[in-house]
Amino acid sequence: MILQLLRDYGYTITVDEAIEIYRSTAMCSTPDEIKTAIKTIISKNKEEFVMFDEIFEQVLAKQRNWLQELNNELVEINRGYIPHELTHPDMELLQANPSCPQPIGGIAVGAGTGLATITGLVDPESLLQFQSNYKQVFKKLMTEGVSAAADTIVNRYLTAFATNFQEIFKTKEKILDHVAQVLNQINPLVKRQVMGLLEEEVNRQLAEVISKNPKLKIQSLENLDFMLLQDTAEVRKRLYLLGKKLASQVKRKQVKGKHSIDMRKTIRANLQNGGVFLDLKLKKRRKERPRLIVLTDVSPSTVYATRLFLTVIEEIKTLFQNVQYFEFIGSCINVTSEYKDGSSINESIENALSKWSLVNSGKQSSNYQLALQQFLQDEHLKLTPSTIVIMLGDLRDWLGGWRNGKPLSLNSFVKIRDQSRLFFVLNPEFHSNWNTGDSIVSHIQNSGIQVQEVTTISQLEDSLKFILSAVS
Amino acid sequence: MMINQEMLKEQHYIADQQTTTVTDIATRLEKPILVEGPPGTGKTTLAKAIAGATQKQLIRIQCYEGITAEQVIGEFNYSKQLLAIQMGKNTDINDLFTAEYFINRPLLIAMNTPSVLLIDEIDRADEEFEAFLLEALGEFQITVPELGTIPAKHKPIVVLTSNGTREISHALRRRSLYLYLDYPDTLKEKQIIQTHIPQIDLMLVDKIIRTVQRLRNSDKIANPPSVAETIEFAKALMILGEEFIEPEKITQLTGILLKTASDHYEANKLLSKQSTN
């Protein structure tokens, strides 16, 4: 069952599409053309398009007579057009409504997939042990042989760290390259003998893993947690687009709002019509753009989320009258000039982070009490009732003091809340980890400050939408 | 009508076997092709090449935020209707809402003439517009309430392109054949450059491709150089001299390949790192 197999891999193949495949195979003259025809009909996005080649090579091409089997299957489906000959289970659906293009079977999440990710195989334990340690593979190779080394590559590295099929194969090449380099330093002859065997074994094991786990769920980049997102251009581009989208949505709302009639101008303009109101003059909408203060935690645990967050902020900053940037760990620094002077967001982020080399203390551990005190004392701070303050931080007050069971930093939080229009905290830590150890989330929430989990791009989008609703 | 690689090559379009097969199947199955890929990989040019190869008129709808169905189907000619009323030509109001007073716009024109319909950058259009296209692309018919359902006299070859600004709906994807055009491999890019600049030195082409691919392979470049930009870069080197591809001078020409400050910053870092290494 070729089509069923493809459905198991996440492809949504409708009856209509199966019939299209049948029609197109009749037009193709070579197996390669048939492969392309199936691929173009069933793929709905880049990931499925690229994934098809890998699945084809690893699974379908290895099956003898795949072409014949597919042909039999398609003939059976196509026969559905003659109701009395219906035999295929899918035909019940066709019989009920011949033009119904319902998807049958499959586990694909369908459209909307961005950068596809295989999560079915990811072992969270091994993710925590993430190290680009090729020596381990080499050690296994020397002590336990080719098979064990290949097993390590496939199970420990590829399936755990790959972000999609393409990534698996790229990673495989990368690891094999590194092992080859190490072997080459020892003995080129050994390298030649071992590498061929190792690659063969890796491919065999990989094919086995993929064929045994066809139900690989495709998850979109938006729902993938920040931990798994690499700081690649693709992620930054996605965030840049998100920023643009949010900005244009708010701008459109501002333009679409109702305008009231400006009576003074209408009367003046219509004097020439003898007082008949032919030409209505509408009041121009005054855009009240609030100020924005971005307060970001750049401690090692959150600095990565901060970078992603600031990429979005860069695109929506035009919606605000003025944006001020602050960074904090154990102390707080004003980095507004770094963001204003930087020719690109990357440069600005780098410049702002490099400013920490000039700070004498507070670079190591979080201290919200001290950091927020410094923030409130900043001579350039413009905290007004029209200011929106967004803080990105995990609210882990490692060094901050406590009194009467409450963190001392709470006073500063309350001050910011009282002096601004909206104070919103975005927490890049999983909700399940809140209020454990040195986390002060519950205290902040109890004081009426909204704290939102932002561990994925879609959560970031939702939170920013909420904040921007105050702007439009 | 069959489309093959040679036919596309005659239109100066170097297509691989996959692109040719998809184009051919789409033409024969009368299904739209949804082409996605990074900017500058030949999505729009593919439509132009198909039009040239099939000797059909190319009708282009350039999508943008706010584009409406009226702008692509057509609308009633109000001035003409007003004039008809003033002249007392039509006394019955229903006579004013006929094809005589309707101005046909690209989509309707494409349905009436043998053509290749290019719906460019569909991702920039609003979702409402995309939903409206479903009938036209799925059934090859258009419904205008006053005129009724207008079936296509000639089914056009439809090419939809998208740069991924927004996710295209599953409904539209299902009605189309999917083609992803990525950056070409070395050999194909070499052929493309030689096709556009026949007098170029082969050694220089190699150097250009190596430089461009280095930028494309970098994780830090958000908008890597497209094929069109590579050709521009090659043309610039032909004018200024080959020495501008060397690490010391190449940063002066990165503006041809990369168009954002952020990418410039990363590229200069990357290329200067190469020169120090």
Which SSEs are present, and which pair or pack?
The complex is a heterodimer of chains A (472) and B (277).
Chain A: H1 2-8, H2 15-27, H3 31-42, H4 46-60, H5 66-78, H6 91-96, E1 117-118, H7 124-128, H8 134-144, H9 146-161, H10 165-186, H11 188-212, E2 218-219, H12 233-256, H13 263-270, E3 291-297, H14 303-316, E4 322-328, E5 332-334, H15 336-341, H16 345-354, H17 368-377, E6 387-392, E7 402-403, E8 406-407, H18 409-419, E9 422-427, H19 441-446, E10 450-453, H20 457-468
Parallel strand pairs in A: 3-4, 3-6, 6-9, 9-10
Antiparallel strand pairs in A: 1-2, 4-5, 7-8
Chain B: H1 5-10, H2 17-29, E1 33-36, H3 43-54, E2 57-62, H4 69-73, E3 74-76, H5 78-86, E4 102-104, H6 106-112, E5 115-120, H7 127-139, E6 141-144, E7 148-151, E8 157-162, H8 170-174, E9 177-180, H9 186-196, H10 202-217, H11 227-240, H12 247-250, H13 254-257, H14 261-276
Parallel strand pairs in B: 1-8, 1-9, 2-5, 5-8
Antiparallel strand pairs in B: 3-4, 6-7
Helix pairs in contact in B: 9-10, 9-11
CA distance, first residue to last residue of chain B: 54 Å
Distance between the termini of chain A: 54 Å
In terms of structural class, how would the helical and strand content of chain B be classed?
alpha/beta
Count of individual domains of chain B: 2
Q: Mind describing the biggest β-sheet of chain A?
A: 6 strands, mixed
Give helix % range of chain A: 40-55%
* Uncertain residue segments of chain A: 81-133
**Would you list the SSEs of chain A in sequence order as H and E?**
HHHHHHEHHHHHEHHEHEEHHHEEEHEHEH
CATH topology of the largest domain in chain B: Rossmann fold
Beta-strand proportion of chain A? 5-15%
How would you name the CATH homologous superfamily of the largest domain in chain B?
Answer: P-loop containing nucleotide triphosphate hydrolases
Helix count, DSSP H or I runs of 4 or more residues of chain B: 14
How would you classify the helix and strand content of chain A by structural class?
A: alpha/beta
CATH topology of the largest domain in chain A: Rossmann fold
Tell me roughly what share of residues is in helical segments of chain B.
40-55%
For the secondary structure, the number of strands of chain B is 9
CATH architecture designation of the largest domain in chain B:
3-Layer(aba) Sandwich
- Overall mean pLDDT of chain A: 75
Please tell me the total number of domains of chain A.
Answer: 3
Could you name the CATH class of the largest domain in chain A? Alpha Beta
The biggest sheet of chain B, with number of strands, parallel, antiparallel or mixed sense and barrel status, is: 5 strands, parallel
